[in-house]
Amino acid sequence: MGDTAGYGHWFGHFTSRNGEQVRANLKAIRNELGSDDLKAVCLGPQDVDCKEGTYAFVMFERPGVVHLCPSFFEMPGMADARVGRVDIEDGTREGTFIHELSHFPFTAGTEDECYGRTTCADLATRAPPRAIAAADSYQYFAEDVTLTFWLAAH
C-alpha cells in the first residue's frame, strides 16, 4: 500500500504504519471473499433487520455469512458504474459485500463511521484513524480501484 491519491482520498494522510494496516485489512477481506465458507443469505422485506436504508448486514455470531436485504438487489453493479450509467454515491452490490465482510473481527473489524462517498471522503481528511476503521472506506477504495483499472484497460 502506497501514498497514492486513492489512498489519501479514502484513508487520509499516508503513513507507513497506516498503509500497512490498510493493506493487511484489504488482504484479509480478499481472503474472506475467496473462502469456501462464505455464504450469502437473502432475506425478505418482512425481516425486521431489513429496515429502510439497510442493504446488507453481518452478525458476529454467524462468521462468514452476509445477510442481503431486498434493497441490496436494487443497488447498481460495478458493470453499470463502469459505463457511467448510474450514480454510485451509496456504492455498488460488489462494494457492499466488501463493506460487510470488513466488519468481521477476523478481517478488518471495521465500524460504520460514515455512510456515503462525500461523508467518508470528508472523514478521511478530518480523522484518518477513523477512516481506516470505517467499512465504507474499504468499499469505496475497492470500487474506485476497480473502476480506474477498467477505464485504463479500455
TrEMBL record:
InterPro entries named among the record's database cross-references: Fungal_M35_metalloproteases (IPR050414), Lys_MEP (IPR029463), MetalloPept_cat_dom_sf (IPR024079)
MF terms (GO), sorted A to Z: metal ion binding; metalloendopeptidase activity
Keywords from the UniProt entry: Hydrolase, Metal-binding, Metalloprotease, Protease, Zinc
Record flagged with keyword Zinc: yes
Domain Lysine-specific metallo-endopeptidase: 2-143
Enzyme Commission numbers on file: 3.4.24.-
Pfam families: Aspzincin_M35
Listed SMART domains: Aspzincin_M35
Record family assignment: Belongs to the peptidase M35 family.
Designated name of the protein: Extracellular protease
Organism encoding this protein: Rubellimicrobium mesophilum DSM 19309
